[in-house]
Amino acid sequence: QSVLTQPPSVSAAPRQRVTISCSGSNSNIGQNGVDWYQQLPGAPPKLLVYYDDQVASGVSDRFSGSKSGTSASLAISGLQSDDEAAYYCAAWDDSRKGWVFGGGTQLTVL
Amino acid sequence: QVQLVESGGGVVQPGRPHRLSCEASGFTFSNHGMHWVRQAPGKGLEWLAVISFDGNKNYSTDLVMGRFTISRDNSKNTLYLQMNNLNGDDTAVYYCAKDMGVSGSQGIDSWGRGTLVIVSS
């Protein structure tokens, strides 16, 4: 059971927009920035968004992040087939004094 | 560019100690906090431990506290993970990762390719 809760899977058609949610608590998302990672099969994770809504260098502006209270979201617009991957959220947890990850969301482009 | 190269993976016997290393290049290693994160086969990411830029502070998840120890040698640009009392649940790909800041609480911006540890007799 992950500290941050993500849906196990989402799907959408090419060129559509999809959002992935990440739910936490006051000790993590509520107080600290949220980062989002993309992991393609067989590859290490790659930073997409940091500090809630800052898109990492070299990452397409089709990716965007937002946060409200103890929940965060990653939005991907103009879906492409190579966006098929697992997506993870992460945040520092003040109570645990450590990082916590979401369980991951597998994106399928129909 | 940032390069993080893990080594030390392989088949390890249950209960035996084992050490992983991560050689860093392409950035000023001594200016950044560093992490270990693992991923069991077919599972999600699990954060293990972080160490500050100077090695004076470190934190780890309760799951491995007391068994795993993170350390670093800034003179060698190398991060370590000492693992003791290993069991089958520790079978995973172990990633070394660089933090954006000095303390290790800013977030991971770069990852190594990982090294696979299989705990088996």
Folded structure, characterized:
The complex is a heterodimer of chains A (110) and B (121). With 110 residues, chain A is an all-beta fold. In chain A, 0% of the residues lie in helices and 48% in strands. In chain A, strands 1, 3, 4, 5, 8, 9 and 10 form a seven-stranded mixed beta sheet that branches. A three-stranded antiparallel beta sheet of chain A has the order 2-7-6, with no helix packed on it. With 121 residues, chain B is mainly beta. Helices cover 0% and strands 50% of the residues of chain B. Chain B has strands spanning 3-7, 10-12, 18-25, 34-39, 45-51, 58-60, 68-73, 78-83, 92-99, 108-111, 115-119. In chain B, strands 2, 4, 5, 6, 9, 10 and 11 form a seven-stranded mixed beta sheet that branches. Chain B has a four-stranded antiparallel beta sheet with strand order 1-3-8-7, with no helix packed on it. In chain B, a hairpin with a 6-residue loop joins strand 5 (45-51) and strand 6 (58-60). Chain B is globular and about 40 Å long. The interface between A and B is medium-sized, with 26 and 23 residues.
Helix content of chain B: under 10%
Taking all residues together, what is the mean pLDDT of chain B? 96
The computed structural class of chain B is mainly beta
Number of helical segments of chain B? 0
Percent of residues of chain A in beta strands?
A: over 45%
Note the gap between the termini of chain B.
39 Å
Q: What brief labels describe this structure?
A:
heterodimer, A: about 110 residues, mainly beta, three-stranded antiparallel sheet, B: about 120 residues, seven-stranded mixed sheet, four-stranded antiparallel sheet, about 50% strand
SSE topology sketch:
The complex is a heterodimer of chains A (110) and B (121).
Chain A: E1 9-12, E2 18-23, E3 34-39, E4 46-50, E5 54-55, E6 63-68, E7 71-76, E8 85-93, E9 98-101, E10 105-109
Parallel strand pairs in A: 1-10
Antiparallel strand pairs in A: 2-7, 3-4, 3-8, 4-5, 6-7, 8-9, 8-10
Chain B: E1 3-7, E2 10-12, E3 18-25, E4 34-39, E5 45-51, E6 58-60, E7 68-73, E8 78-83, E9 92-99, E10 108-111, E11 115-119
Parallel strand pairs in B: 2-11
Antiparallel strand pairs in B: 1-3, 3-8, 4-5, 4-9, 5-6, 7-8, 9-10, 9-11
